[in-house]
Amino acid sequence: MLGEPVKTTATALPSQVYPSRVNGSRSMANTVILYPGLTVSHFVPMVHLAGALLDHGYAVSVALIDPAVNGDPAFRAVVARAVASMPSLRFHTLPPSEDALTLIAPFIPRYLDIVGRHNDRLRDFLCSFTRGVHAVVVDSLSVEALGVVKRLGIPRYVMFTSGAAALAAFVQLPSVLAEVRRTFQELGDAPLELFGLPPMPASHLLGELLEDPESEIYKAAVTALYGIPEADGILVNTFESLDAGVVAALGDPRCLPGRIMPPVYCVGPFVGGVGSEAKDRHECLTWLDGQPESSVVFLCFGSGGNHSAEQIKEIAVGLENSGHRFLWVVGNPFSDDQDFDALLPNGSLDRTRGRGLVVKQWVPQAEVLHHRATGAFVTHCGWNSVLEGVTAGVPMLCWPLYAEQKMNMLRMVGEMGVAAEMVGWQRGLVEAAEVEGEVRLVMDSEDGMELRARAAAHKEGASVAWSDGGSSRAAIARFLADVDSRQPQTRGDR
């Protein structure tokens, strides 16, 4: 969500169109256009949505801002895997903007600038469908494009890639701004009262909203949040039993006074990767095969989850002292050619050899979490990771880093009841003693057993949601019925 790191570059790739196969009896007049975001965590759920639409017999085209705009190799790789592994999808890279991109700017203003510069390209692409477009689904960070879709008279929807609680907070925050007499930054840990949500410390909001209200960052974030309810409907990557209370609140007029909240469709959980990262099975899975059931603590902090050298040493000491098996994916804070052993306490790797595995590179997170040996998950609380932990039925330890992760953490520890918090993140350093203690709590204590039981219950709920007659299948059906009810429709001036 907001605040994810994106590296921009002016280098553009040529526009490419990949052939598609129309499923079922529907014609190209039943094409749904998806307009995904420019980060892995926003792109992957949209591709999973594409698969669900294909299963319902719709033709799906994906409009892409050139992946080269994002300097992250992982993003370009996942786009390439989606193209290679989903031949039924039609991928179209929008022509690059003729204007120079704003390369040196904070994340949100830069992101919105990129999207805005491609509005005309998106419009031209939509107009190229001579038999019309059934609907357009845009990423929640690309809501400015909703205006383009509206002017063409095409039904417009948002894919919200975080949970329902984050959505409820995001749509209310712009109006809350008019009510508070101090800035969110000045409120500090003072609780915010938002409809349908428990009190939340202002300090746990998006980092962009803790900036000066006159700053470009702050204004851009508010603009992005305000635009979400302008859609005809919002698809959320969650499932109803996980967020039932919040979903009910989103349907209450008190949630968004003075505005109309569009229908919310809980269509998740969309979890796991796209295509195959490698031909060979990852070494960490082979290592897990040799470990006892539910015995391994898995630590992974997402693509932006690098820690300082000091923090890495504290984690290493805590894991060693806990006595538990662990699989630790480390984000290297320095260059790839630096000796990683030098970052750890002397002899740490030797002393934990056999019961611990440390890797620097990518691992198939969903597969690791679903492995029988995995017993707990230390996570940065990115929503995709939360859902992968939930669908695996694994209790979690929360270590939020950026974006809406602090908000997700409150939900995981509170209403969901599947996690405990590493409180040291608030001080900027989680010390070894806390790492040791929290690992033992989740793996050894009665509290940990309760977390595990609730995680197992949510796992079952996730499974039921996508079974025949499940809530997510029903939500997809309601969404498509709403789309169909808006056809035929007089298109706007093209």
UniProtKB/TrEMBL annotation:
Its EC number is 2.4.1.-. The keyword Secreted does not apply. It comes from the Eukaryota. Keywords: Glycosyltransferase, Transferase. The keyword Heme does not apply. Pfam families: UDPGT (PF00201). Coiled coil: none annotated. GO terms for molecular function: glycosyltransferase activity; UDP-glucosyltransferase activity. It is an enzyme of class 2 (transferase). InterPro entries: UDP-glycosyltransf_plant, UDP_glucos_trans, UDP_glycos_trans_CS. Belongs to the UDP-glycosyltransferase family. This is Glycosyltransferase. It comes from Triticum aestivum. The gene is LOC123141218.
